[in-house]
Amino acid sequence: MLKGRAAVITGSTSGIGLGIAQALARQGVSVMLNGFTDEETVQALKRELGALGVQVEYHPCDVTRPEQVDAMVEAAVSAFGSLDILVNNAGIQHVAPVEQFPLEKWDAVIATNMSSAFYGMRRAVPLMRRRGWGRIINTASVHGLVASAQKIAYVAAKHGVIGMTKVVALETAGSGVTCNSICPGWVLTPLVQKQIDQLAAKKGLNNAQASEDLLAEKQPSRQFVTPEQIGALAVFLCSDAAAQITGASYTLDGGWTAQ
Ligand code: NAD
Q1: Which atom of ligand 1 sits closest to the CA of residue 113?
Q2: CA triplet 4, 127, 59: central angle to 5 degrees?
Q3: Contact status, residue 17 vs residue 35, Cβ threshold 8 Å
Q4: Which has the closest alpha carbon to 1: 182, 220, 159, 238?
Q5: Residue 1 in domain
Q6: Which of 80, 125, 159, 184 is the most buried (most CB within 10 A)?
Q7: Is the CB of 13 within 6 Å of ligand 1?
Q8: 58 carries an active-site annotation
Q9: 112 lines ligand 1 (CB under 6 A)
Q10: 216 in the same domain as 236
Q11: How do residues 154-199 score in pLDDT, each as one tens digit?
Q12: Are 73 and 83 in contact (CB under 8 A)?
């Protein structure tokens, strides 16, 4: 169904973005990977995904830099001939109370998690509109819907992503282009491992105990969401069955936001 389509997935050298890239590649989608990593990892990922029979490219763009995002979109069009799917997924976290939140961390979290999606969408929308088909998926978070203490920049950025998703959905409605947000709860990725490490150090726990504590506080299922599950949702949102789903926010959170 998606065979021959082309996708750019930001922040896809690890975690959720990689899960989405793998799921799309399995459906025959050519993928442009992006993220901060070393050459060895890039080559290994290219081999792994290329073995699925799709074209795999990598662009080292820093998504906080609009001119670099432009260059990545141009590189995708020149490599694949089109850009059909854009997944704005790159993200970072910083945890601190409001009065101690460093200004440079605020700027970095807002730029990486929110402004980057605007930079990508403003370039992708005209390309998709011209072809009468497109799928934009923004990795928001449960923190786009509810808050947690000590995450002021992340919560602001993710609420912003959900707002931008609705705007782009309205502006593209009826054009064959859809724009939706995915809102995961806890997913065990490097971004969350850092928070588990901090909790373990603070409470004197081992890794397993700290993971259990982290889940127990917010996620009623007490199980991590997996990048594979998020990849499967992304594939569904790219399918024809999802053609009328736009402006929506999909939670995969083990019940976090049901409370
Ligand atoms: P991760 O650390 O495994 O992946 C983040 C990716 O973003 C990496 O590839 C990294 O290199 C890339 N990246 C960071 N800054 C970048 C920049 N300036 N330019 C280009 N690439 C950059 O983390 P993850 O957990 O997979 O996070 C992916 C997304 O999912 C983020 O937007 C995050 O907020 C969101 N999210 C994560 C969770 C979770 O529990 N892990 C839950 C909800 C939402």
Answers
A1: 32
A2: 70
A3: yes
A4: 238
A5: no
A6: 184
A7: yes
A8: no
A9: yes
A10: no
A11: 999 999 999 999 999 999 999 999 999 999 999 999 999 999 999 9
A12: yes
With a 6 Å cutoff on the Cβ, whether 16 touches ligand 1 is yes
58 within domain boundaries: yes
Q: How far apart, in whole angstroms, are the C-alpha atoms of residue 201 and residue 192?
A: 14
pLDDT digits (tens, 9 = 90+) for 23-58: 999 999 999 999 999 999 999 999 999 999 999 999
- Show the domain range for 21: 6-185+226-258
In short, whether 34's Cβ falls inside 6 Å of ligand 1 is yes
Q: Six-digit token pair at 71?
A: 């260059």
Q: Does 49 map to a domain?
A: yes
pTM tops 0.70, yes or no: yes
For the Cβ of 251 lying below 6 angstroms from any atom of ligand 1, the answer is: no
Distance from residue 191's CA to the centre of ligand 1 (Å): 7
Band (1; pLDDT cuts 50, 70, 90): confident
Q: Which helix (H) or strand (E) holds 182?
A: strand 177-184
The enclosing domain of 41 has a CATH number of: 3.40.50.720
Q: State in Å: Cα 90 to ligand 1 middle.
A: 4
User: How far apart (Å, rounded) are the C-alpha atoms in residues 20 and 35?
Assistant: 14
Ligand 1, closest atom to CA 112?
Answer: 18
Catalytic residue among 58, 119, 154, 250: 154
Name the residue with the closest Cα to ligand 1, atom 6: 11
Say yes or no: 82 and 205 in one domain: no
Whether ligand 1 lies within 6 angstroms of the CB of 184 is answered as yes
In a domain, 202, yes or no: yes
User: Residue 53 in contact with residue 78, Cβ under 8 Å?
Assistant: no
Total of domains in the chain: 2
